[in-house]
Amino acid sequence: MQKAVVIGLLASLLLAACQAGMENTPASAANQPQAPVPVPTFTATPRPTATTVAEPVPTRAPVHTATPTAAATVEEDADGPATNRVSNLREGPGTGFPRTGWLEADTPVTPVARNQDGSWLVLADGHWIWAQLVRNVPGNLPVADIIPELPAQPVASNPVADTGSSAEPVATPSASPQTPTGGSPLPSGLPFAYGIQAHVIDVGIRNRRQILDAVQDLGFTWLKTQIRWEDFERTPGYYQFTSSRTELDALVADAGRRNIKLLLSVTATPRWARELNDDKFVAGFPKDPAALAGFIGELARRYCGKVAAIEVWNEQNYYVETGDRNMHGSDYLAVLIPASQAIRQQCPGMFIISGALTPAASITGVSVDDFVYLEQMLEGGLAEYVDAIGAHPHGFNVPPHATWEEACAAIQTTGNEFFNGPCDNPHHSWSFRSTMEGYRELLMRHGADHLPIVPTEFGWPSFQNSEDNIHAAYLYANDNSEDEQAEWTVQAFRMMEAWGWTGPAFLWNLNFRVVAPTTERALWGIVSNQWEPLPVYNALQQLTR
Hints:
Blueprint: H1 3-18, E1 82-83, E2 87-90, E3 99-103, E4 111-114, E5 120-123, E6 128-130, E7 134-135, E8 193-197, H2 204-218, E9 222-228, H3 229-232, H4 248-257, E10 261-267, H5 289-302, E11 309-314, H6 319-322, H7 329-346, E12 351-356, H8 370-379, E13 389-391, H9 407-414, H10 421-424, H11 432-445, E14 453-455, H12 482-499, E15 504-508, H13 512-515, H14 535-544
Helix pairs in contact: 2-4, 5-7, 7-8, 8-11, 12-14
């Protein structure tokens, strides 16, 4: 087995083992691929305190315009009906109908009719809106003459547990040209934006404010944090959102006051929800997907209008995140679909992002190639249940502009003294660009190119000025100077903005040199252990000004 395979496999397994201080590394498989399992990165998680109303967050923008379905003359309140917050418009009275657009908070509207129970209103232009999103609704609205019926529900190619609710279908466009620069125009509700991941749970009010200060100082508008389900629902049905340990309520309130949009990435099943005899040293999928749907539904209900998006799981093509050595995209859909339905029911305007895959080759019992796994998910109906596709396009020691075919030549120029994986084992997973463009091509092939790709983690590590001796599994960080880390990060952000099919992009990470200075995660941090800005921090400030 070649050296790069050993190093790359160790990288992923060791990093996963550090997560929450509990995972052990699974044994390597007999059948080794062309390339290693690249590095997944993680954030340990904390908990909440007091509830404060945050600023509303945006929902998806118009995809098409509906035909008016009813008209009536009604008396309006002196103040007039208007939206309470950013609000979705739909083709019919229910979250099962496709979105037709959205309205900003405080937008005047003209309801002209309602459905039978008054829970949905039809506006003068024919769009439907949930009644609870509108204030000053006239009391004399008639029942609409024509009330659309729900469209047929999409069915995944693999059977999944029936949770008793229906998913929200997403219109699937026709196939597009096989090039990542082509395809259908994306809806504008989840456009490219600058984001970063931080360890911001269980840090206390002073540190939390310092993190939010840094996000604003960078000129970023999105913040991602990982929500470890096992920490928030230790007992079935008992949610710890307000405890001094988890601090999630406080984070949501503080971020809302600063107009910072939040992405919550949910992972890590509590023991009570696991299979009895599964491997408790890894994160693991739940035994019953309805348990996860219950937790995520409560997140959506509690933080509706305050949290912008939820990412459902993390790196599910990797054994450490699922506890399943026979991984397949249909397994993820069985978990995703009930969770998606719960979010749609509790908060129709909240964005749903598919769990980002780790760029990887297929190693029996350890990982599935992310291109293969993404295609399996798409074939099973993934596009019907999410608003965006999560991705983790890490760069190792390869500049962002280099494709996987160019990666070997690139590192021979920029430096491969410590790590030669892209030359020893060519594979798309070494390349930020090839991973992103490969996902885009798959979406186009499956008629899902209306969905943006959201990199919920990406970045380049640097060992320069780090606290501890570097482990052999992360030698590529020794090839990257802090100046290269800065240059490549800025270049990657610019590439994603120019592509036009990328949603908010989250750099990994802000503050692990502070909270975990002797771990491998610190190598990706952009401030020192004393909160001093590194070159990448300063470069990003200049980028967003």
